[in-house]
Each structure stands twice: as structure tokens, then as C-alpha cells.
Amino acid sequence: MKVLVIQPKIGMGDMIIYLPYIHAISKNYKNSISILVKNNSRAKELLADDEHIKQILLLDRTKDKLGSHDGIKGFFQLAKEIKTKNFDKVFIFNSSLRYLLIAKFAGIKNISQYPLFRKKDNIVISAKVFTENELGTIISTQPLLKLKTEKIKNFKDKISKDFKYICLGVSASGETKRWSVENYINLCKKINAITPCKFYLAGGKSDQQLINNILNSGIGPNCTSFSNLKISETLPIIKNCNLYIGNDTGWLHISSALEIKCLALFMDSPVMAYGKYSKYISVIVPEGETEKTTTHDTLGKEKISIERVYTKALELLD
Prior knowledge:
The protein has helices at residues 12-17, 19-28, 43-46, 71-83, 97-105, 123-135, 149-156, 181-194, 208-215, 231-239, 250-257, 271-274, 306-317, and strands at 3-7, 33-38, 53-59, 89-92, 110-113, 164-169, 197-201, 223-225, 243-247, 262-265, 281-284. The protein is an alpha/beta fold. The strands form two sheets. Strands 8-7-6-9-10-11 form a six-stranded parallel sheet, with helices on both faces. The termini are far apart.
């Protein structure tokens, strides 16, 4: 049976969160499957070594609605592209009528989809309940990024055992979700004074100024930037780290899926959706907030102290 999974959310973090359910579908049908995802999910780099994925199809829909799959013309274009693949079954992780109709126009007879027109949901709970109901089995929410053993070993052989290695998630999808760069600099200095460390700065081209601030600081000689690396090149590095410390960003979710201990700073995004699905994630929320009250519009970046993060980081490094 040829199976397609449609996962139209943006970003690396969402792609990681859906992995347990994609893997469960593949295992259920005892075959690798195809997925339809947006390019900024970075699925082609993240899932290059994943035996559960047969093919990655790209969904070209954009904010300005000028993508090749936007509008009426894009609707029929996408349906045509999917139809050529002759899928027998599709799982649609979305409540939109558009994807249901596209699947029908593509000639897919067996369609499973979220309830139509649902406005709000918890990304993890919705995916878990949907997939468990469809497959009739319990599924762990813990994602696992597949990475070839030789890639991990090749990098491990290059690094010194005299240091601890920390991935710093300084990037974020918005300013209100980003802990101050000065906080990260001072945190790294404090940790390094106790335990000699090397820090990997997880961010892209758009984060270059933040990264430069750290590289030009007193801790800079202990830091290496990811900004000029492909996502696929960073995976063996992260896998060999002792700890992730950082914002709620795609790098957090990548690290947790690589089974690295993570210290996640939630200041303006929902902990219950993005911070509780993985056993590798420990959470710090703003003073005066709880994990349940920390959500969108919490605006708590100034209420997470260096001392709290430092204390928890040392605990996790021990």
C-alpha cells in the first residue's frame, strides 16, 4: 500500500513533533511512506537517514499566497501532482477542507483526516489522539531523529574529552521568545568557570548579529557557530553534545529528538504544547508563571534569571 502523510505546518520544530506519528504509520503498514511538507520544515535534511521515509514532496504555499500550490490554480496543480503518485491511503494532519478535496481530486480512496474546521488544538495531543484512533495502538510522543552511526562516530572522534559540549539555542521565531544574548554570554562564562565547555551557537543567517555578539565576547573563543552549516551537518554535532540550553525554537526540538538533555527557556510560547512531549526536555518559565500559564503573550523574557538557568544547567551537566 502506498501511503501519504500531509503535514502542512511550518518550521523544524513542528516537523520533529510529528515524527512519532509518521513513524507509527510507517510501522503499521510495514513500509516506508511519503510525506507532503513545506520546504521550511527542513524535512529533506532532517530525515535524510530515516528509513521510514520513502519520498518527501514539497508543499509550496506562502504567506503572500503566491506559491505554486496557492489559490484555485494551485489547488488543481497539487491534486495533479499527488495523483501521479497513485497513493492508496492518506493521513491529513490538518482540519482544512482544502486538503480533503485535494485528496479526493487526486483519486485517493482511503482518507483519514483531523475533524474538519477545528480552530484551535494542542499540536501534540491532536496528532497523538488522531493517529492512535486510526491505528488502534498507543503511541509515545517522544520523537526520534534517525542518524547513521558512522556520522555520529566520525564527529565524536574529532572532539576532546576534556570539555563538556553545549548547544546554545539563541535563535527564536520572534523577539519576545528570545532570551537576551547578554544573558547567554554571562551564563556561558559562569558555566565555563566551573566546567570547561565548548559552545555551539545554533542559529541561521538571520541570527548572524546575535551570533557575532557572542563570538566577539569574552566567551567567544569557546564558541562555534552553526550559521554557515547545513542542518544535516549540525545533527552529528548536536548528537555529541552533553546539553542543549536555549529558547523554544526548532533547535530545541531537534536536540530532544537526538536524545540530548535539554534546558528549554519558555517565555512567550505554550509550554503544554511544546515543552512536555519529550522526556529529554526540562523547562524554565518566568518568575510568577507556571508551566500551564506560560503561553502566547506571556512576555516573560525579563523574568528568567541567569542564576536559575545556571543552577539547572549544572544539575543537568552533572
